[in-house]
Specification:
The chain is mainly alpha-helical. The protein has helices spanning 39-47, 52-69, 71-82, 88-98, 103-116, 120-133, 137-151, 157-172, 176-185, 188-193, 198-207, 209-222, 231-241, 246-253, 259-269, 276-293, 296-309, 311-322, 327-337, 342-353, 363-374, 378-387, 395-412, 417-432, 440-457, 459-467, 473-491. It is built from 27 helices and no strands.
Length: 492
């Protein structure tokens, strides 16, 4: 180093890098990093819950989340749970949640239940928790199988299938043949009426291919015959296995009666495969069906699927869809395009609005487009939301609006905390107008996400907001869960 160059030192403790910036003209402003959320904030919110049962449930959620990153503090919160007269269901819920990170502790929690309860359902839940710990699979698997047999007598078909599926899913990771045995105990009639989720089956295949494909086969046999009412389920099945078993995917697609639903399935299947040639083959099939149907909606679905696979086809169909289209036709197309060509989708939304599209039937489509944007482009989503001048006062509409606003704020918080807080304020105003009733669970899920994002930005505002919700116990429980999730993400 030349002798005439200044040599600077920084006395004391330094956190992070030190940069020499030379001569500074003007003022230097040092901003301290924002104080992150703490578990104490979540506990304070939980303590404000007046209903003891709901307060205990909130403590269970806090304990389960904290245990993953801070077992010592998690143990302290478990002490609060055990001191609040928890039910057996509270204990098994906690044990299931911490089984992967604290298996021995989870096993200790459920042992008294396994030894002493006569409640068949509670015993089954405790057996699942024990199985998740992987501490005693030879003991846990027979207990879960007994619980599955007991579930066969459940009179409600929906609950029966949910419980049996849960037991089978839990066993599949450690003993696929036993899990498949549970599936075989389910009646064909139940398979024909149960809800099908492509994500369920994808997860099952990830855990065990044998089990996942057995699950697919049972659902498929239950829906191999029947009218168009089964087509949406067949679509879900086709998408679920498109990336892992082409034969199964095409077999179920061939049984979709509705042309438009078959086009939807084929276009979604193109996203599931890495083999471009296979994706192009399915796109070609979808194109041929769409051209026969010749409706703007179906052609728009294919145009969106072709954006990356066949840009020339996409441009051709886009022209066909948009020429002379009504405002609603344009909105349907914008919905299809939102995730793959957001710039064009936004232009189409603006064009639709210019046609004086103001009736409430369009609201749902506008919101779908805004929600799709919110996943990856919050600024575009907010612009779209601000363009919509259709106001709906129904609870489900307010929840939908709040959910999108929270997604937008979560993305914006990365670069502009102030604007993100303003958007969250709009969201909480919508949620406060939602009455207790059939949509409460949906509203509380949004309260949780709102609190999680807000806690990362400004925990003081979370505390203030929670203080304004006195008496709304389930909303407070959701907010406590959101705050503690923010803590976990910060320390992960």
């Amino acid at each position: 180093m030349p002798e005439d160059r200044a040599h600077n030192t920084v006395p004391g403790t330094v956190h992070g890098p030190v940069t020499q910036i030379g001569t500074v003209h003007g003022d230097v402003h040092i901003h301290s990093a924002p104080v992150g959320p703490s578990v104490d904030v979540a506990l304070r919110i939980a303590s404000s819950i007046t209903e003891p049962k709901v307060r205990t449930e909130a403590l269970v959620q806090i304990a389960a989340t904290v245990f993953e990153t801070d077992p010592e503090r998690g143990e302290q919160v478990i002490g609060l749970v055990l001191g609040s007269a928890p039910t057996g269901w509270d204990i098994t819920s906690l044990a299931c949640s911490i089984a992967h990170c604290a298996p021995e502790r989870a096993a200790l929690l459920v042992e008294p239940i396994l030894a002493g309860t006569d409640d068949v359902g509670l015993r089954g839940s405790a057996a699942v928790a024990l199985l998740r710990t992987r501490t005693a699979p030879d003991r846990a698997i027979p207990l879960v199988r007994v619980a599955a047999v007991n579930s066969l007598s459940e009179p409600d078909r929906v609950f029966r299938l949910v419980w049996l599926r849960r037991f089978a899913d839990e066993i599949a990771a450690v003993d696929a043949p036993n899990a498949i045995g549970i599936l075989q105990d389910i009646s064909p009639d139940d398979w024909a009426h149960g809800h099908v989720s492509s994500e369920w089956i994808k997860r099952a295949i990830t855990v065990s291919r044998d089990y996942g494909f057995a699950l697919f086969d049972h659902y498929f046999r239950g829906r191999r015959t029947g009218d168009d009412s089964q087509d949406l389920s067949r679509k879900s099945l086709a998408i679920a296995v498109a990336g892992t078993d082409l034969y199964r995917a095409e077999a179920v697609t061939a049984r979709i009666h509705s042309g438009s639903i078959r086009v939807d399935a084929l276009c979604e299947m193109t996203k599931e495969v890495a083999d471009r040639e296979q994706a192009e083959f399915w796109l070609q099939d979808a194109t041929e069906i769409a051209k026969r149907l010749n409706t703007r909606k179906v052609l728009g679905v294919v145009a969106a699927a072709a954006v990356k696979l066949d840009p020339a086809l996409s441009r051709q169909l886009t022209q066909q869809v948009t020429d002379g289209a009504s405002a609603m036709d344009l909105l349907f197309f914008a919905d299809s395009l939102a995730a793959v060509d957001p710039a064009q989708a936004e232009q189409i939304v603006v064009r639709s609005l210019a046609m004086n599209q103001s009736h409430t039937a369009a609201w749902f489509r506008f919101m779908r487009v805004a929600k799709a944007f919110a996943e990856f482009d919050p600024a575009r989503a907010l612009r779209t939301l601000n363009l919509i001048e259709i106001h709906r006062d129904e609870d489900h509409a307010r929840i939908e609006t709040a959910e999108i606003l929270v997604k937008i704020a979560t993305g914006m918080a990365v670069w502009d905390a102030g604007d993100a807080k303003a958007v969250l304020n709009r969201a909480q105003q919508e949620l406060r107008l939602v009455a207790s009733g059939p949509y409460s669970d949906d509203a509380n899920a949004v309260w949780r996400d709102l609190a999680e994002t807000l806690a990362r930005i400004d925990p003081n505002v979370v505390r203030h907001l929670a203080g304004q919700l006195s008496g709304q116990d389930h909303a407070l429980k959701a907010m406590a869960a959101g705050v503690v999730r923010a803590c976990a993400s910060r320390t992960a």
